[in-house]
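Hey L., structure's done. Input below.
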Amino acid sequence: MRIVEHVYWNGKVRFDLAEDRYGLWTMFVVEEGTFRFTVERPEIPANEAPLPVLPLDGEAGFGSAVLCPPGGRLRREAITPLTFHYVQFEWEAAIDGPCGLEPGLIAFEDVRRLRSTCAHLREASERNPKAEGRWVAHLTLDLLLLYEAERRRAVRPERRFSEDALMSRAAAAIEARAGAPLLLEALAAELGLSPVRLTRRFRAAFGETPSHYLKAVRLREARRLLDDTELTLAQIAERCGYENGFYLSRVFTQDTGMPPSEYRRRRRI
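Output:
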């Protein structure tokens, strides 16, 4: 990996450009604030276009980063004032390792590690950029490898990473009950917390609310069932805790950028 540019923006109210096209891999790592984004990948014939692995549009905030590929276009709009790192880099898989780069939104579980890495990046931005190039490359690669390790980790509840043991229990309970409505009050009572305290502590541990985590668990199971079974969308919705197939289709399309039927079709070989 070779860092071409690293810029630290503090409290940026709006982007100067509503969209931009990049010739290199470009990553936006958010420390504070949120922004709305859409990643458009380079034009590829429809029969050769790979299936999106990560969400190509949505909102990014702390605990996440957005990757735009070479030749890709990024549309963006600040929702709240943003503090973030803008990093452009060259990547050679044969040299830089097996970490597979995918465009879109990447989310980190180990937010404490993320916060520490961002602090080092921030400190590096205050010194000579050329002298800090190798250090910034190390920190950027560390983030990518951290995400890769988290992505490859089995999705079993006991493998959910957090230094907060009580929140690991909360995540395990959410996964185990993903097919039923999330009763936050009941879960909080089991853990000896108020619903507000549970939500705040869960966000501190994992960078997202319990409801957002539940949504991710349900959609992950929906993708698996679309891949591995011939169940109807209504049957999948029932197993994944959604009221009906129509509602699941709407949530799935918003998350992946394509309806479940198209997702299933493109996964068939």
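Residues 154-159 have pLDDT under 50 and may be disordered. The radius of gyration is 19 Å.

-- N.
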